[in-house]
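> tool_call: predict_assembly(chains=two)
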Amino acid sequence: MAKFNLNINGKSKEVEVDAATPLLWVLRDHLNLTGTKYGCGIAACGACTVHLDGVAVRSCQMPVSNIENQKITTIEGLSENGDHPVQKAWLEHDVPQCGYCQSGQIMTAVAFLKENPNPSDPEIENAMNGNICRCGTYLRIKAAVKTAANS
Amino acid sequence: MLPKLPFFKTKEPKNQSKVFIPSRREFLKISSLVTGGFVMGINFQCAGPKGEVITFAPNVYINISSDNVITLIAHRSEMGTGIRTTLPMIVADEMGAEWSKVKIAQAEGDEEKYGDQNTDGSYSIRMFYEPMRLAGGTARQMLQAAAAAKWGVDVSECSTENSQVLHSSGKKIKFGDLVADMGKMEIPKPESITLKEFSSYKLIGKDVMIYDAKDMSTGKAIYGADVDLPNMQIAVIRRSPVVGAKVISFNDEKAMAIPGVNRVVKIEGAGNPPGLDKPLEGVAVIADNTWAAMKGRDALEIEWDLGENQTYSSSKQLEEMLKSTTGDGKLRRERGDFKAAQRNAGKRIERTYLAPFYAHATIEPPAAIAHYQGDGICEIWAPTQHPQWARQAVADALNIDLYNVTVNVTLLGGGFGRKSKPDFVVEAALLSKAAKSPVRVQWTREDDLHHDFLHAQSAQRIKATLDKNGNLSGWNHHTVFPAIGATASATELHPSDGELGLGCIDFPFDVPNIRIESHESKAHTRIGWLRSVSNIHHSFATNCMLDELAEAKGEDPVDFLSGLLGEDKNLNFEGEIKGQFGNYGESIEKFPLNTGRLKRVIEIVAKEANWKNAVAEGKAMGFAAHKSFLTYVACIVRVEKGADGKLLIPEVFYAVDCGIGVNTDRIRSQFEGGAQFATSLAMTSAITLENGKVQQNNFDGYEIIRMPQSPKKIHVHIVESMEKPTGVGEPPVPPYIAALCNAMYKLTGERIYQLPFKA
C-alpha cells in the first residue's frame, strides 16, 4: 500500500492503495466517482475513458503509480451542470440507450474535438473507434459530435 | 421445473387466495387483480409525521403529493429500450400530468404489487399499454371528480392539463390540492373509466426524450456496480471452466496473502445440468476493494474435476448437428405432402445454414450487491431484467421467506436476455451471508464471456421444390440447436415448441406442401436467450433460402415474397403444427398473423429504398422480411466495397408495423441499435468451445462492431396504425442479418451459408 496525491476534477485527493491499482478502481472504489465505467479491463472498449491533462486515456490500464502531477478529469468534472457543449449535443440527439458506455464516449469525444474542432465523418469514426456501444448508438454519437463541433 | 420463458408466457389469473402479509407494507390493500398481472385499486395514504405532505396513490403506479409532485413508478427494467420512460409517459399523458416535472421511481421486484416485471420478450408495451392508460385514466377521473365536488360543478365540465384540473369557466386547481379530498373517495372500477381520444394525446405517438438522458450524459446514472453500501466488500469468483465441473480442492494461501483480501468462500454449483437460476460452482475471493479481489482470484489454486463436458468441442458438435439433418427428424409442422412434391418437382434446391454460439456481451458485465442482514432478511441491488425471479432464486438459495427478500432494480448496462437469469444475484446473496457484510459480486469481461448463457449454435437444412411452372411447391425445413430447456433439464434434446415458434413453424407463406422437422442435440454449456432468440438463425436460413428461390424462379425477391404471402388473411396454422403454437404468449385470435400487414411493410421498404431502381456497379442491395414478437418488419440493406476493399454499409431501410407507435423516437432508436447489433452477429461475433472451455476471453476475441464498420444511415419507417401496440426491442435483428447476407450475394456473387461471414 502506498499513498498517492491525485488532482481530480480540480480537487486534491489522497488515496492509500496498492501502487498497481488501475486508476479506474481508484476512482470507483476509493473516491466514489462511479461515472467512469468498467467494461473490459484491457483498454478494448473505452467505457473507462478519462482525461489526463486533457488527453483521453483508458483508466483501466493506467496504474495509479504512473500518474504524476497530471490533472485527471472524469465525467463528473467535465462541467458544473452537465452543460458542456458535447453533453448538450448528447441531449439534443437523445443519444443514450442503456447509457453505460456514454461517459467514456463523451470523454473521448471531448478530447478529440479539442484537437480537431472541425472533423470530417471518417475522422470522427476513427477517433471513436476505441469506444464500443453494444446498444449501437453510433449514428447518434456521430451526429452529436458534429453538433458539438458546430456549436 | 422450467421457468416461464417470455415466449411461454401464460396469462391465467394468479391464485388470488395467496396470502400476502408483508410486514413492511401492511398499509397496502389488494382489492382486485386484472388479468395480465396488473394490480388495480390499491389505495394508500401516507401522512407525514405532522401531516406536512400527504401522498395519494390511486394505484401502485401513481403517487401525487400535496405539493403537486407527481411520481410515477417504472416497474419494468431499463436496459436501453427506453421503457422506464415510455410506460410512465403513457400514464402521464392519460392523466394530464405535466411531463417535464414528473418524477420516475423504479419499483422493486414485487409481483403482487406490480404484476409482471420480467422485462423480456419485447412485451412491456404490448402487455402494459392498456393498463397504463387505465391507471392514468383512473387518476384523471378521480381528480376531475374531486375538483367538481369542490367547485360544485358538473364533472363533465372538468378536464386536466399540466397537473391541474381545469373547469370550462377557466378555474384551475393543482392536482396536489386535491389529494386530501381524493383520499376519501372510492376508486372507480376499471370499466367505468373513459380513456382519452387518441388524437388528444400529447406524448403518446410522439418523440419523447428518455428520462435518464441527462444522468447518463453526466455520469450520475446508477448501474449495478455503482451502488455503495457501508462496509461493503467486493467478491470476484473463479468459476468452473467447464460447465458442470466441481471443485476437488483449493489452496487460498497466496490469495489470502494479498493485502485487502479478507476471505475465500466456495460456492456450490448445481453440476449438470447447470440450471437457469443457479450459480456455477466456484471459489470466491472477498476483499476490501475490486482490485484486491481480482488479484486474489488470480492467485487461487484450484483442482477441478472437469466432468463430462471436458472433451466437448463446439465445432465437432456443429458438424454432427449438420449431418443429423440429412435424415428424418421429429415432425413439428406438416401441410400437404412434401415427399410427393419432391417426386413431382421440376426443380429441387437444398441448402444448409450454420450459425455459431453468441454471447450477450452486455457492455456492463454482470454485477450485483446483496446485504444479508441476518434473521432471514436479504436486500439486493442488481441490474436485473427479472427482479421477481431474482427474488425467488435468492429466497430459495438462502432458504428464507420470499417476502423477506427485497430486490432493488438499478439501471442495466445492456441486458439482451442475459440479465434475466439471476445466477449472479444469487452469488451475491450467498457471499453476503458468508461474509456477514454487504457484498458486491463483480464479474470481469472474461467471466462474462466464459460463463454466459449462450445463444445456441445451430444447423439448418432447407429442401425446396419448384413445380413444373417454377412455383414454390414444397418447403422442408430441418432445424437443430441445443434447447434453452436443456440448461435446466438434461432430457430436453429437441428445441421446444416455443423456440420453434420463433421464425420456423410460423413460416407464413402460401406453399402447398410444408414439412418442418427438428433433430436432437445436447447442451454442453449454458444456453439462454439473446435478443430475438431463435428468430436469429431461423430468419437467416429462411430469408436467405427464399432469396435464392426467387432467383431460381427468375423473380424479384420482393415480388416473390409478396406473392407467396397470397391474399390478405389471418393465419392460424390450424391442424398443421404438432404441439403448441406459442404466438409469443398471446392468443392467435387477439394477435393473428396477418399476411397483409407483412406485405404492407415489404411494399413500403421497397419504395423507400428505391428497390426497383438499378444500383451502380460495385454496389448492391439485399432484402428480407420477418415478423417476430408480433411486430412486422421488412428490411433492405445497401452494401458496397470501400476504397480499402472493406465492406461498407452505407444505408439501411426498415419498415415496421408495431401497431400504435407509442414513443416514436425510441422505436427508431431500437431499430438503429438493432441493425448495429445484428451487424455484429452477422460479421464479427462467435463463441467457440474446445475441451469444454470457451475460447474467447475479451473484446479482442469476441468482436463487436465499432463506429467505422457500423451502418452509416438507418431509415426507419413506422407504419401509421391503430392496431394494438407491440414491442420493438427484438424485431429489428432477424430480418437485418438475412438482408445483409442477400446484399452480399448481389455484391460478390457468393451466397452466405455460415455466420459470421468475413468481408
